[in-house]
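Hello, quick one for you while I still have it in my head. A protein chain has come my way and I'm curious about its shape. I'm sending you its amino acid sequence along with the C-alpha cells. I'd be grateful if you could look everything over and explain what you see. Here's the protein in full, and shout if anything looks odd to you:
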Amino acid sequence: MLIYFLCVLAIIGFSVFYLFFYRGWLRDLRLREPFPEHWQDLLRKQLPVYRSLPPQPRHQLEQHVQLFLAEKSFYGCDGFEVDDTVRLTIAGHACLLIIARSFSDFDDITSILVYPDAYRVREIESDGLVVSESEQIRAGEASSRGQVVLAWAECEQGAVNPNGHHNVILHEFAHQLDYLDGTADGAPPLGGEQARHWQKTMTLAYEHLRRSLSHHHKPWLDPYGATEPAEFFAVLTEAFFQQPDHLKAEQPEVFEALRGFYRLDPITFDESPP
C-alpha cells in the first residue's frame, strides 16, 4: 500500500513538473549554452541591425534566437533546402519583434515552411449557394494553427534592404503576435488605458489611410495596410522596425502605441516600461 501511495505521488509530482515547470527548466538549460560564433557572423550579415544593438538587447535577441531554433521546426518546400543562413535570417528577424518581450509570445508557433520563391495557393470562397475558387500568389502567410509560411526570395530581399518598405518575416510574425488573443484583428492583447489608446489611435490612422487611397493620394505607408486592420498592424510593424524615424515623424501617436506594445524604441533600442 505504501509503495502504491508513493508511486501515485511520484506520478502526480512528475505530471505537475512536466505541465508547469518542464518547459522553463529546459529553456534555462538551453540558454546555458554559448551562442555560436558562426551564428553571430550570420546575424551580422543577414540582420544588419544586429551590428548596432546595445549589449543588453543583443544578448536578449541571441537568447530568443537560441530558443527559436531549438523549438521550431523548419521545412523546405518545393525542393528548397533549409540551411543555417535560412534559419538564422528568419529567427533573427522574427525575434527582433520580441526582443523586449517574453519568448512565450511565440509558444504557439510550431513550424516554419519555406518556399524558394512566391508560391501559389488555391482559395475557396462560399457566398451562400455560390462557391468560387481562385488561385493566389503569396510571399508568406501566418495561421492560428502555429504555422508560418515564407518565400525565401522575399526574406532575402528584406534582409538586404533593412530600411525598405517591406519585410515579409516581420510582417508574418506580427500576424502571429496578433493571434495571441485568439484572432488576427489588428489589436494584439493589451489592457486598460493602453488598449483604449491603441483602439483610438489605430482606428483614426487606419481610416486616414483608407481615405487617402480613396482620394487617389499616394501614402508613404504600404497601401496593403488598408485592406483590413490585421494587415494594417502588420504593415505598421514593418515600418516601426525598418523606418522608425519616418513613422515617428509622420504619425507620432501610432509610433507611441507601437512602442508601448513592443516595449522598446527601435531608433535607440532603449526599452520602454510594459
